[in-house]
Amino acid sequence: MSKKLRANWRIGLLSVVLVISVILSGLVWVMPYRYEHPNEATAPRVTSVATMAQENLYVPTTVVKTGPDREQHLLFNQPQNVVLTARESLRKWTLQKGKQVSADNPTAYREYLRQSNALVLSYPSAVAIATFNTTFNQKLSAKDLTLVNRIVIPLTGQARIYLLRDQGTVVYRYQVNAQRLTKLKASLLGGRRLPVEYRWLNNQLVLTYPHAITLPTYRAAIEQQNVDSLAQTLLNSAKGKRLAQRVEGNQRIYHNGSDKRLVYDQAQGTLTFENYLSQPTRYSLQTVYAHFFRRLQQTGIIQDQLQFDTFDHAKQQITYRTTVEGFPVYNEDNYGTVRLRESETGVESLRFSCYSLTTPLPTKQPALTLPATAVVFNGLQAVGKLKDVQGLRLGYWWHSDPTAKEVTVRPTYLVKYKGEWVPYQTLMHEGGQPA
Fold this sequence. Notes:
With about 425 residues, this protein is α+β, with helices and mostly antiparallel strands.
């Protein structure tokens, strides 16, 4: 009898355990927060610049591969991120024995960019060698090369790389210790490729497209930041403490005494922060990039896909811009950009927008085809504006619409005309800006 009771008790206990197991398994599958090992596809990306590392902000954005016959292709939408793979590889290498191999020779400079079987990584604008060192874990001296625009990595195992500066067409060659190319070469596989050529235009080196190109459109949600929270952070106000503010027309002005103020244009959705310092500041070329990065971290701004874009040393002004697949994103009201400036009069200013884009995703809309660059240049020449063009970029454009929750981001050529980046259609009167 006792044996039978023990057997029944065991069966009952096993049944209860089985039922509990089934219930727990079901919860694991239906609950929205089930555990997964983080990887590149599932790990959440950090969008707050406060937690961004400097080496993630100052990275090259354009990747060009040169083949054995010196044919060149722009790479994008790769299964592996080429720039980050190159950065992690370079951080393990040691660059040494730098030697200047060319200067003041635009023809030779272009030839170094076109050497066969090589990878060209380009910044949108020159960065200081100190910033390059931080990003790639190197110790190169600024006495040799002060600024870097492009990195050329031969893929033939030559144990050398080249750093190039557009200004003065300066080329430095460095020997490389502990160079391994396996991972870097693997990251070049797959993805999309567009034929390209480097050309000089009005003394500016531009990447041109000899054939018509087709690029996808993207759709992105509009994210609006809380202006009151930004004001609390920028003006160093204690949490919960009400800031002094006043309204002048469309502008709401926050202030905390006499040294700091934030002006919010409610009609445009733009913000200007001004910090009146006790004395003027002037940072050296090698320290200013890190200084602006630290200031950006302290703002509390949340901008997805933000990258370094341009720096004007004379004005002590830096611009960070939203990108998609390495292409810069533009807007007529400069949404998605952050500009910081240090003035000689002791005023530190910050201009940005409360509107930004979340990660753009491909849409089901048809891809757009853009003409070859020569067609664009011919059109600009026909209207007498080519002589004033200071640069050309392939990028994306989106229209301001503060009432929209989503916007379409469309590919276009951006032309730097008299200091401003505008869609090429605007200058050629072909229906104005992209629709």
